[in-house]
Amino acid sequence: MRASRWKRAARGSRVAAALVALGGLASAQLCPTGSTTFGGAGDDFLGGLAVGSSNELYLAGGTDSFGAGSVDALLLRYEADGSFGWARTWGGAGDESADAFTLDLAGALLIAGPTSSFGPSADVFLAKLDGSGTEQWGLTWNTGADEEATTVFTDAAGNVFVGGCSSVLVGAGEDALLLRFPATSGTTAPSAVSGVRIFGDAAADELINSGTIDGSSGTEFVVTAGNWTSHAGGGSDVLVARYDTVALGLVWARRWGGPGDDAGDAVALDGTGNFYVAGETSSGVGGLDVLVQKWDASGTLLWAIAWGGTGDEGVGYVSQDAAGNLYLAGETTSFGSGGQDGLLLAASPAGQVLWSMTWGGAQSLEGLGLERPKPSAGPVRAAGFSDSAAPVFRPVVGTTTSLSLSTSVPTGITGTPLGLVTPVAATKTSPPNGRGSGIELYVYELDQGCYPTYCQAGTSAAGCTAAISGVGTPSATLPSGFVLSTTGVQGQKDGLYFYGTNGRQQNPWGNGTSFQCVVPPVKRGGLLSGTGTIGACDGVLVQDLNARFQARPAHNPGPGAVMQAQLWYRDPQNTSNQTTSLSDAVEFVVAP
Question: Which of 5-9, 174-178, 294-298 has the lowest mean pLDDT?
């Protein structure tokens, strides 16, 4: 999978997050049930993540907290139960970062990216480690010009493909670079590349950001997404291409874009030869918006949408579940807690955004990624990087726009410089597990189909603290299926839910311990009869909010609304709290 170019993010440019196949989440938001952190005195960034055959979680990225150079590649392993496994750095005296990361067919870790430690220029590095973090081999590829790796992936035979850019071929600037290394086993490193293709135009820069193998037709092809940027100005365009896997011959290439900036940062297949490209565009409603496209195998654009707000958004990863729904991860400055927040989106196969969430805190830099367990049962695990002390997940709503921009066939020449493969002896270290003081890594478990809670619940006269939750899918059209449930209510006390769409708050409720957590004006559900035992804290009050929406159309906020809900219940002996108590609150997005 493609990783974020995290060093550029640290300088204030966009951050991409990792996202791979999920499954079964299209109509359900996610909420954290556990977390851990990793970091040092400097900055530590996420580049990518993947789940192994035993549900162990691997993270790759970069660090200037640990290692041999100013920046080193960083790898982490967490076990299936969430416990810390190990950490490794890989690098030399200069800079390296794992900007590309994947697992091969045998479960070994492949990392790739740029290096300045092992040659006279900026080179591509590729390294392989086993599941215990032991290096199997490491190498560089260079032509004497500047090269960079941004994606790594394998085919069914175990050949390793690396994509990025090179300045060796055509005039000034960068050209799209695609390398193939032959399959090897164990500690045997490739001694040479088995294929090279550079595609470029003397009047533009080209870059491959993401790549994958499409074998849906019975013959494998490489599919890539990236950027085409004119030297004469006018912004950048999306560049998509299809290559054969034998000679890396260019089958076709397409440019797509408007007068501003457009970029393809991620690619995912649908299993039938069609593929999705995700990135960013300046042709939406804000500065930069999320871009999602669908292309067919012949290079015909089927549709394109933009999603965003008044600031900047972009996504660096896209994946698809078994039902065809899309999951995207990236960043936003339009929504969230402040600065740049992580962003998660789910969309239908036709490009309808189903839900969206941010992850962040009060500081300026967050990026987030998700992985699913193998098999699909169990919690989703996520990783991100943040310089905030306590980043949180929150649902948000943006604006979706259909796009109709021009598609063209880029002109240029291709070349096949063999370059030089050089074995390298990198320095490896094993950083300790612990919390950092700069930008650090977060690892979460996320439950499917639950919703984030916030605010402080009050304590009743009997010492009860009620806890709210949402179960199911909130919908503007379904007759039922989204239940608000509050446990820990004082027994045999009646109550009701109130809800609104004006945001969060935490205002004191009377002089007691409860807080009003939903900004008025609010709507009220029907009165619910108390359950449980008098004097105990075993009461449970439930209401199907979808059914309430259908019975009371004025209460239905419509699809896409972000709603907050809270329980009020009777507490006659609690005179300081207006003889009532309140639960905490839950927040969710109403689906179509």
Answer: 5-9
Residue 18 has pLDDT above 60, yes or no: no
Q: Total structural domains in the chain?
A: 2
Q: Is the dihedral of CA 248, 250, 256, 260 positive or negative?
A: positive
419 and 555 inside one domain:
no
Q: What per-residue confidence (pLDDT) applies to 12?
A: 27
Flag whether 432 is in a domain: no
Query: Do 294 and 393 fall within a single domain?
Result: yes
Tokens representing 121 are: 């220029």
Q: Which two tokens stand for residue 29?
A: 């938001």
| Residue 72 β-bridge partners | 63
Count the neighbouring beta carbons within 10 Å of the beta carbon of residue 14.
23
As a dihedral over the C-alpha atoms of residue 257, residue 260, residue 261, residue 264, rounded to 10 degrees, the angle is: -10
CA gap 161, 243 in Å, rounded: 12
SS3 (DSSP) at 145: coil
| 56 and 105 together in one domain | yes
Determine the Cα–Cα distance for residues 440 and 431; give it in Å rounded to an integer. 13
- Chain centre to alpha carbon of residue 314: 11
Domain extent at residue 177: 6-424
Residue 445, domain member (yes or no): no
User: Does residue 376 share a domain with residue 469?
Assistant: no
| CA atoms of 468 and 583, how far apart (whole Å) | 6
Confidence grade of residue 443 (pLDDT, cut at 50, 70, 90): confident
Token representation of residue 475? 């919908």
Coil, strand or helix at 553: helix
DSSP alpha helices (H): ranges in 201-330?
A: none
Residue 251 · residue 242 · CB < 8 Å = yes
CA 380 to chain centre: 12
CA quadruple 290, 295, 301, 302: dihedral positive or negative?
negative
Report the range out of 37-51, 114-128, 192-206, 478-492 with the highest average pLDDT. 478-492
Query: With 60 as the cut, is the pLDDT of residue 24 above it?
Result: no
CB 114 within 8 A of CB 91: no
Alpha helices, H only, 101-202: none
Mark whether 478 and 379 lie in a shared domain.
no
**In this predicted model, what pLDDT tens digit does every residue of 528-573 receive, in sequence order?**
999 999 999 999 999 999 999 999 999 999 988 999 999 999 999 8
- Shared domain for 218 and 177, answered yes or no, is yes
Q: Strand ranges (DSSP E) for 324-479?
A: 326-332, 341-347, 353-360, 366-371, 380-386, 392-395, 399-402, 406-408, 413-415, 420-423, 427-429, 440-448, 453-454, 467-472
Question: Given a cut of 70, is residue 364 above it in pLDDT?
Answer: no
CATH number of the domain where residue 359 is located: 2.130.10.10
pTM: 0.87
CATH classification at residue 561: 2.60.40
